[in-house]
Every structure is written in structure tokens, then in C-alpha cells.
Amino acid sequence: MDPADLTLSAGPNDVFPEVRAAMGGPVLYHYDPVFKERFRATEAAVGRIFGSDRHEIILMQGEAILGLEAAARSLATRGTPCLNLVSGVFGKGFGMWLSAIGAELHEIEVPYDDVIDPDAVAAYLDAHPAIKVVSVVHSETPSGTVNPVDRIGPICRSRGVVTVVDAVSSYGGIELRPDEWQLDLIVAGPQKCLGGPPGMSLMAISPEAWAAIEANPDAPRGSFLSILDYRDLWHGEGRFPFTPSVPEVMGVLAAAELLLATGVDAVLARHERVARACRAGVAAMGLRLWAASETTAAASVTSIRVPDGITDIQVRDHARATYGVQLSAGQGAGNIIRIGHMGATARPAYAIAGLAAVGQTMRDLGATADVGAGVAAAMASLATTAPGGTA
Ligand SMILES: *Cc1c(COP(=O)(O)O)cnc(C)c1O
């Protein structure tokens, strides 16, 4: 199969040409003044996209799972009462780390096509005042849904509870306001809406989160997972705890600068416009969104129910082999096929190609789908939301 075929997965996807070019530059010594300046510029650009002056930016070297596990181990130890909010696969996974650490795990779990109710979080915290940490996934990528972290943050802050937010597939594509929403430790990744490579964890950390980490005697030190070492050595002494991934840093810098040059709001609008077209196409084809409500559907990925009798893996593999479109399957969240529209792939023509590949694949595998109606509806949506259009 041709690697240059169209990748519309839930990430990583192909990156902007500027990012590829930046990653192909010289591999600098990490204490070369040029590299140190680039690293600081990357922190600054990543921070501007987070949009908070109150949060300190820590860039760790490893795919966002590293940052998430580091966050769990930094905030929780044996016996720490934690409330983990589960509306999908990534939320469930965070709870597994908390269990492995020996934390006292509390969970609110909803069906994976639904989102967390903030009132339920408030009621749970009031009934369990010992809870110190709440963890939540902003955009649950397999489900294609967005949790109301804007409301969950203030509920936690007002009760002295620190929040950990997995914003890997929302950062740079879905509105995220760490300061206004009173969120504490946010972990993002470059390989989703930023349109960068998959090798770094981008973290924004509030003073409240630092205080909680410092109060945890078992927060990692002298470890690849140590957020504290990164802060103390790099921000404190200008030394790296270990060698950063030089080409990744260059790629993330290029992606972040590209996003900022376009403007955060314009990039969020681009994601929403393509997502809306994609959802219109799904409905017109006679297929069903996975998200229980369109109001909770993510702008970064559209999750579609696969009809009974067909599996997500069959759809994914057939679309790749026959139509040259790489989609994502359900990743355990359900019988779901996913069209990613994130970063460089949040583009009108890509959504149309993704919809056509999904619809015709369903037909090839024996289900019913009106491919033409789906494509027409997506294009009609794009026409009414074009720059200068009505929305
Ligand atoms: C992509 C993603 C991650 C990182 O996990 P991988 O599957 O290893 O890429 C973490 N959380 C969310 C919500 C993600 O979308």
C-alpha cells in the first residue's frame, strides 16, 4: 500500500510541509545556544496556544502518554483519594494508572457515547470531601465527544481539588481555557490538532498543581517521569535532565508557530467547520454518529456507528486497501469508525474524501449508505460556513 495515500486517522496524521521541513534540519547538540533558544521558543509558542500566563509550561520528551503517566504519579501516591471521570477509553486508562499507584480510586463512569455531568461531579465531591485529585479527558478521541471541563474546573477549584486534564486531542483544535476554566495540570500532544509529530508531551501546570506535586513525597525524582526534575533543572539551572528529542522539538516549534500565525480562533473555526460538514455528511448518508448528542461531538474527530454485521476493523482495512484512505477504528470504545479532522487534515476536501470512503466501504460490506447524498450534504454545509458565509 502506498504510504502517500490519505491518512485521516485519529492521529498521528501527516503534518504540514513546514513541520516536515523543520524536522529535516540539522540535529543540533542540545546545549548549542541555537537549540536552547529554539527550546525556549517552543515553550513560549506552546504556552501562547494554551493561553494562560498563570500556568508554567513543561515540555517532556515522549508521546503524551508519558506526560499523562507522569501527571498521575506526580499527583497521587498510595492512598491518595482520587476521582477519575470516565466517558471513554482514555479516561478508563487513567484510572488504571491511579490503581497501579495504589491511590484510592473513585470513579464516575458514563456510557462511552455520553459525557460527564458536572453536577454529578459536584455532588460526588461534596459527599467525599477527602478527594484531592479529579482526572478527566477533555476530548475523548475514540468516542469523538467533549467533556464540559469548563464547568468541571471551577467545581473542583472551589473545593480545593486539583484537576488533571487530558487535552491531547483538543489542544489546538477545540476551545481550551486553562486559566478561566480553573484547570490545573493539562497534558497535550502535538500529533493531533497541532499537526505535529507524535514525540512530545506538552504540559501546562498551575501553582495549585505544583503545590500538590510538592506535597507528594513519592512524586518522581531522578526519573524519566519527573516533572519536578524538568522544572528544577531546565527552568532552574538551564540544564536538561536528559537529552531532548531534537527533531521533535523543531517540528513542534514549526507547528505551533504556524498555528499562531493563522491565529488560535481561526484554527478552532477551521476544525469546527470541517467537523460540522462531516457530521452533516454522516446524517445524510443514513449513518449514525456515535456521540449521543451533536452538541457534545468533537471538532477533532467524527466517530460513526458501524452497522451490525460489520466490524470497525473491516471498515478500516477495506477503506485503506480499496480507496487509499486510512481511518481509525474504535480502539475498544465500541463498533466505531472514525474520520479524523485534526491539524493538517482539518480541511474541507479531506472530509469529503473521508465520507466517500466510509460510505462506499459500508456499501461494499453489505450495509446501506447514500454516498452521494452524504457528499452533497457535506459540501452544502461547507458552502454555508465558508469564510464570508452565514456561520
Ligand atoms: C492520542 C491521545 C493520547 C495519546 O495516546 P496514544 O494512543 O498513544 O496516541 C492520549 N489521550 C488522548 C485523549 C488522545 O487522543
Can you walk me through this structure?
This protein is α/β, with parallel strands linked by helices. It folds into two domains: about 5-10 and about 265-385, Aspartate Aminotransferase, domain 1, CATH 3.90.1150.10; about 15-260, Type I PLP-dependent aspartate aminotransferase-like (Major domain) (Aspartate Aminotransferase, domain 2, 3-Layer(aba) Sandwich), CATH 3.40.640. The chain has 13 helices and 13 strands. A hairpin with a 4-residue loop joins β6 (about 140) and β7 (about 145). α9 (about 245-260) packs across α10. The structure holds pyridoxal-5'-phosphate.
Question: What would you say about this model in short?
Answer:
The chain has 391 residues and is an alpha/beta fold. Helices cover 44% and strands 14% of the residues. It contains 13 helices and 13 strands.
Structural class: alpha/beta
Bound molecules: pyridoxal-5'-phosphate
Based on DSSP secondary structure assignment, what is the total number of beta strands?
13
Number of domains: 2
Percent of residues in helical segments?
40-55%
Main sheet makeup: 7 strands, mixed
Average pLDDT for all residues: 97
Unreliable stretches: none
- The fold-level CATH name of the largest domain is Aspartate Aminotransferase, domain 2
Strand order of the largest sheet: 2-10-9-8-5-3-4
Order of helical and strand elements: EHHEHEHEHEEEHEEEHHHHEHEEHH
SS strand fraction: 5-15%
Could you name the CATH class of the largest domain?
Alpha Beta
Give the second-level CATH assignment, the architecture of the largest domain.
3-Layer(aba) Sandwich
Radius of gyration: 21 Å
Shape: globular
Q: For the record, what is the CATH homologous superfamily label of the largest domain?
A: Type I PLP-dependent aspartate aminotransferase-like (Major domain)
Helix tally? 13
Oligomeric state of the chains?
A: single chain
